[in-house]
Amino acid sequence: MLPEPDPALCRDLADDLRDAGFTAEALRDAWGAAADDAIARGLRTPAARALGDRGDALAVLGRLLVLGMPQAAASVDEALVRAGAEGLAHLGLATVADAGAAAAEGSAAEDSAATTGTSVQPRAVVRPQSYTDASGTGQWWIASDLDEAALGGPLPEDHVLGVGGASLTLAGLQLPTPARHGLDIGAGCGIQALRARAQVDHVVATDISPRALGFTRLNALLNGIDGIEVRLGSLFEPVTGEQFDRIVSNPPFVITPRVADVPAYEYRDGGMVGDDVVAAFVTGVGAHLAPGGTAQLLGNWETRDGVPGLERVRDWVASSPVPLDAWVVERESLDPLSYAELWVRDGGTLPGGPGFARLVDAWLDDFGARGVTEIGFGYLLLRRPVSGAPTLARYETLHTALAGDSIGAHLAAALDAHDRLAGVDDAGLAASVFHVAHDVTEARHHLPGAEDPTVIELRQGGGFGRALSVDPGLAALVGACDGDLPIGALVDAIAELLEVDPAALRADLLPRVRELAFTGFLRLAA
Questions:
Q1: Selection from 377, 157, 147, 145 nearest residue 262 by Cα
Q2: Is 347 helix (H, G, I), strand (E, B) or coil?
Q3: What CA–CA distance (Å, rounded) separates 507 from 154?
Q4: Closest to 88 (Cα-Cα) out of 70, 106, 102, 101
Q5: Beta bridge partners of 94
Q6: In this predicted structure, what is the pLDDT of residue 134?
Q7: What is the C-alpha separation between 190 and 193, in angstroms, rounded?
Q8: What is the pLDDT of residues 359-388, one digit of tens each?
């Protein structure tokens, strides 16, 4: 468990890191793009080799705080003129000891620290993390536990994960709209709470791990962010009877066999059978949402006995005692073997190593017992209606790469378009004015020598990067949407050009206009 962080010491450390130019961009420049990418794959040697024997503050801190390599205390004191090596120790981020003792403790000490004198042995990593939100670009310093490369073996079960691909995805999904009360369930190192705090006045961050909450407190202080309250407990237990305008969660959704000889990592394993932890979140979150409040989370879901995973998620939403709007996107799916291999490797057990085949077999036995043939991964956006019945029930599969890293603004725009059009009938829609989104392009494909295209495709540069094949009528309508004339007048003009019945063309195009407005191809005029 981390000690209670000293706010003054955290400010000193932040000032030292700032003065050292300790940024993600500076480190990537220092050891090169290839070495930087290798770190994400658990390989630190290329970065260490690139730094060579450099003794400047950026190099010393890069080795110590990012690569997890011991450094001479004198070098650390030079790099951190305010906090010093002892300051890192007081924060629980390092220990200061005789270099010989540090070398005996682990092979990592041989990488860079001198074999004589005083050495600083890292106990955690502190990595700079760039981000982009509605206000622009910025950077955090995120402390978390040492990874497999620094530990030289599998992770301990109480490991607190740093910023990974999933956490960055969820941070980018967060709605960039203001709210008063927020909740981050399964806070881990605290990145979701930090991101939420940019838009939410007060955030409660919960976790089952006291160590994780310690990192959340530390990271909030290190980045000068107030208004984050931490509470210990599982799922909704720490907030019984409370409601929030914004709930976000990267829950421990990884499906892990519940058998004694399979490690259960706190940061990823919810302690329930199959996908029950995600089901419990979906069925329980409505009671903790204020009217109009939204919840966003990542999750896994199983296809069992021929019932698709997304259909099972639909059933969870329908089982909620509080009616919910739902938008669920499945981003990828894996067969049981691929899923097992992925998460066995994630825990630090590698193919060919002791226990790898045994762990994979345990996963396959577990999936087989429930008739699981596929595991989906994706995003859930749930909302409690302000009044009345839910109006949004969208479950879709989008197994394509995202067009951008941050799509929270796209989600917010889609909800706004849905709400503006939900109570509008076709006559009202026909009277509405739209314009084409700035990121939409059109591609036409012709057979050689043909005058008319065989395929017309609309492509979206942002959001989910959707590509739609459209017919000439819809292509003409989208092309004519310049924010001037209402949709109905445009449809009538296109019907005349195409020599088709205007009423029939309206019946065909208006439902698709609603879809294009939701997905962001068309924007409603103010």
A1: 157
A2: coil
A3: 60
A4: 70
A5: 122
A6: 67
A7: 5
A8: 999 999 999 999 999 999 999 999 999 998
